[in-house]
């Protein structure tokens, strides 16, 4: 944080002596420290020459002689790596936590998911993305959870670049701030009837063989799902596939062997959603009891 905006950090510490602000700043330092260590270790291990591992990180460290792209400085790379962790870790962790909470609140859906995992034989085939990605109930549970608990629930402002931008038939001049928020669009009853209900069936449809299959939603439903910052525009989440993969693998593995239940009624209160740009459960914890079930 301090690396990005030292004056802002100084002003926040001096004039906003709130505990939450201090914690936020400390969390930033921690994450940048972690990013710095990770980049240092990587450079020690791989060196600064062309690596046998052509990763994005190598390109940033080495640059590209053919195109003339200069390498980034170590400090710039630390900021990029740390920003990626900011974007990736809490978003995915919070979403997965809410998914487990919803399964505990909806034991019927939890049983359906366990049954799907069992009958698909994924436990024997091995938990890999290719074995879990097309499971309809798993996909429906993950999508419905993202609908109800988007990790960035509030407005993601954009500025029109003009000279005239037309949005939904409305002409807007250059420099106008426009925004929509996932929390509103994803609970719009016009597209998601009974919007406060956790209902993965919205994302299921009967296939030609009568079996349930993945339903991606109507075009309008897809348009309203802003959980990834839009349907694939240039600034929408580049980590969406990785995050979806992580959540599916986590849920499939857990539901193969375990059942989750609410620890007590207090879990509902702890899991009330609060918006700090990122979604954070009010109590900072999710009290669940995890028990092993018969395979
Ligand atoms: C459930 C998990 C996740 C959710 C809900 C999520 C959501 C979002 C949203 C809404 C944005 C747009 C922010 C904006 O427009 O201002 C975004 C951007 C971004 N996300 Fe994710 N994200 C998740 C996981 C990840 C992961 C795992 C990674 C990386 C591995 C990642 C990397 C990024 C990056 C780099 C951006 C900035 C893109 C840009 O501005 O060009 N995200 N994410």
TrEMBL record:
Classification via Gene3D superfamilies: Cytochrome P450
Keyword Metal-binding attached: yes
Amino-acid positions noted as binding heme in the UniProt annotation, renumbered to this chain: 237
Cofactor names: heme
InterPro entries to which the protein is assigned, alphabetical: Cyt_P450, Cyt_P450_E_grp-IV, Cyt_P450_sf, Cytochrome_P450_monoxygenase
GO MF entries: heme binding; iron ion binding; monooxygenase activity; oxidoreductase activity, acting on paired donors, with incorporation or reduction of molecular oxygen
Keywords per UniProt: Heme, Iron, Metal-binding, Monooxygenase, Oxidoreductase
Family: Belongs to the cytochrome P450 family.
Protein name, UniProt field: Cytochrome P450
């Amino acid at each position: 944080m301090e690396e990005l905006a030292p004056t802002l950090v100084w002003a926040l510490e001096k004039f906003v002596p709130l505990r939450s602000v201090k914690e936020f700043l400390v969390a930033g330092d921690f994450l940048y420290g972690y990013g710095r260590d990770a980049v240092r270790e990587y450079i020690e291990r791989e060196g600064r020459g062309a690596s046998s591992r052509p990763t994005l990180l190598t390109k940033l460290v080495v640059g590209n002689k053919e195109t003339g792209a200069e390498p980034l400085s170590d400090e710039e790379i630390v900021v990029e790596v740390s920003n990626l962790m900011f974007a990736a870790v809490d978003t995915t962790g919070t979403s997965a936590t809410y998914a487990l909470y919803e399964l505990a609140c909806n034991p019927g859906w939890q049983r359906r998911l366990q049954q799907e995992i069992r009958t698909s034989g994924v436990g024997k085939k091995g938990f890999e993305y290719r074995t879990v990605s097309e499971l309809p109930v798993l996909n429906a549970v993950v999508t419905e959870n993202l609908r109800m608990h988007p990790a960035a629930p509030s407005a993601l402002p954009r500025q029109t670049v003009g000279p005239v931008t037309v949005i939904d038939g409305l002409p807007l001049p250059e420099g106008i701030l426009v925004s929509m928020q996932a929390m509103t669009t994803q609970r719009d009853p016009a597209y998601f009837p009974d919007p406060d209900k956790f209902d993965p069936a919205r994302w299921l449809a009967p296939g030609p063989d009568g079996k349930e299959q993945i339903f991606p939603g109507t075009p309008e439903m897809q348009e309203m799902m802003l959980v990834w910052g839009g349907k694939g525009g240039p600034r929408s989440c580049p980590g969406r596939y990785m995050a979806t993969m992580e959540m599916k693998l986590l849920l499939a593995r857990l539901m193969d062997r375990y059942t989750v239940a609410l620890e007590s009624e207090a879990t509902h209160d702890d899991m009330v959603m609060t918006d700090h740009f990122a979604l954070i459960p009010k109590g900072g914890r999710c009290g669940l009891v995890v028990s092993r079930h018969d395979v």
